[in-house]
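chain below, 232 aa
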Amino acid sequence: MELEMREGYEGTGPGAITPDGCAVELYSRLPVGDEPDIIAAAVPAGARILELGCGVGRMTHALLERGFAVTAVDESAEMLERVRGARTICSPIERLDLGETFDVVLLASFLVHVGDVEVRRGMLRTCVRHLAKGGCVLIQREGENYHTDVPRERVDPAGFTVRIVSSEPVGDGVDSVHAEYVFPDATWTQTFRARPLTRRQFEEALGEEGLKVDRYLTADRVWVRAVPVTDG
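prediction:
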């Protein structure tokens, strides 16, 4: 069943577009960066990972290659059709309840910045609900200047250009962000809503759901290892 586009979200370009404006074909083309190495360095070898918002499996496949057992979750069946070698589950993150726990819960792709506060709370509760004792949550935040350093563009070594064209306030602390992905043979755009969070606001959001920062994994503080407040 095709899902309706969320209010304030839009995507254009060839192929299927998900409710949050993501183009399946675009994400199938994007290369894997250093994220799998960051994750692997922060968790035990062979850990069971619950990947929330896996998309087409860019990180899923890289994590499988590194020996992790991955359960991949996404609300888009079209995205999940591209995932190979992992258990897949089609579900909105904020409503997921598998009745089992994992060594690591992964919330990447800046999902913690979702504009709807209740959806963010639901996502973080899902992380906590599925976390095994002694486990951790790995979260990818936006960069500190994500919403202010605009417009900007980056030419990827793989031969395409990513542009963050604009980030405009739409009320209640939320911005409407417009991005373009230009390939030699196709162009995709995505408009989505995101809530900028300072480091303090981010840590307070975690605390509301019983999590705390264990450590920031990268110098830019984009990648975070969080654990339950009760641990330690």
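Residues 125 and 221 are 22 Å apart (CA to CA). The chain has two domains: 1-30+145-196, 31-141+197-228.
thats it, cya
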